[in-house]
Amino acid sequence: MSKLIIVAYDISKNKTRSRFSKFLEKYGVRVQFSVYEIENSQRVLDIVSTAIEAKFKKQFEPGDSVYIFTSEKSSIVKYGSANLLDNDLIFI
User: Fold this and answer.
1) For residues 29 and 37, is the Cβ–Cβ distance under 8 A?
2) Is the CB of residue 65 less than 8 Å from the CB of residue 12?
3) Phi then psi dihedrals of residue 61, to 5 deg
4) Cβ neighbour number for residue 80 with a 10 Å cutoff
5) Which of 5, 8, 61, 76 could form a disulfide with 38 if both were Cys (CB 3.0 to 4.6 A apart)?
6) What average pLDDT does this structure show over 37-44?
7) Which residues of 30-58 are buried (b: 16+ CB within 10 A; e: fewer)?
8) Residue 28 φ/ψ region, left for φ over 0, alpha for ψ in the -120 to 50 degree band, beta for the rest
9) How confident is the model at residue 92 (pLDDT cuts 50, 70, 90)?
10) Distance CA 88, CA 56 (A)
11) What is the pLDDT of residue 39?
């Protein structure tokens, strides 16, 4: 079984959402409208995280959120309003 990164997002502005989606298409495959499956490697995770911090984060509206789920470490990275939620998630 290969290791995966799952990126799920909810971005309200069409322009920002389209740019973010096109960015993710470079690294993975869309599995649902706002969910991408990406091959897990530290390099790709660093690229995606850095781009979110440097490029996209400042364009997010208050209700926007991005979740990055990594199967290797069972970790979650949150951006936008997702940071305000303190919910536990269970990986199966």
Assistant:
1) yes
2) no
3) -80, 165
4) 20
5) 5
6) 85
7) eeeebbbbbebeeeebeebeebbeeebee
8) beta
9) very low
10) 25
11) 82
| Domains (range + CATH), the chain | 4-84 (3.30.70.240)
The rounded distance, in Å, linking the Cα atoms of 62 and 8 is 17
pLDDT band at 30 (very low <50, low <70, confident <90, very high): very high
Residue type, 5: I
For residue 78, CA distances in Å to 1, 2, 40 come to 25, 23, 17
CA distances from 72 to 41, 45, 58, 82 (A): 9, 11, 28, 21
